[in-house]
Amino acid sequence: MRRTLWVPVVVSTLGTLVFQGQSAHAATTPAAALATRPATTPPAITPPAAARLTKPKPKSTVKPTTVVALTFDDGDRSHAMAARLLERYGLRGTFYVNSGDLGKKGKLTRAQLAAIAKAGHEIGGHTVNHERLTDLGPDEQAATICSDRRALLGMGYRVRTFAYPYGAVDASARQAARDCGYNAARTIGGIATKPCGGCVVAEPARPERVYEIRTPGSVHDDTSLAEMKRYVIRAEQNGGGLLPLAFHMVCAKGCGSYSVRTKVLDQFLGWLATRERRGTAVRTIADVTGGKVRPVPAESVTP
Hints:
By secondary structure, the protein is α/β, with parallel strands linked by helices. Helix content is 36%, strand content 15%.
């Protein structure tokens, strides 16, 4: 009789321990890994909120008054990690890459760029090798802008918007961006970074100069979390509109003037994700400007 009673108790105790162990494991297992488990072994508890937000947030039926566009220039290798940070909060960004630099030291590989696009981020053009367009003649401008877009389209990306390297733009560069099939182009600067009377604090919801969309300069290593928050709050308090932010490298300890610390970016994204209830949403530049994927002109052949 003792053996008969002892066995169920041991089995019950072991079952409890196994269940507790599975629960602890489920609490630390990434959402992607949980998704691959058989349906017969669901996780015992819900993963943390940050792990759950791996898909873009569904667009609200209420039109936001303020739209923040998070843009990342130059195809730096740190952008693979930056994209994952955005995904943690259900946000998506625009990544402007130089097609001729992919795979080079310090730059994204083609596989990394494909993963960024697959996660729902926008891929945009940035010239073949980051040429300063105002140093080129109109034909050279058109050649690098069109060749870059042609290459990215050939990789399978829906390339609809462009960013001028260094923010350097003139009339012929704007025309080249249009002629090469882009629906919009972003520059650097033009939006106030400090409070001032009558200053521009955001683009209109539909930018008036769609081939010269402005930003509050570039985010630098000395741009504080509080300052980035103020950019957004000033836009909210002044009627809203489109606020594009331009980032470059993302580094844990800083890696030059044109960089943002990983911790600061993470904190900013976490804060930004809470602004939806205030009428502020995060969208890609292509989401805002719209338009179909237009063809790029055929490459000219020199006789």
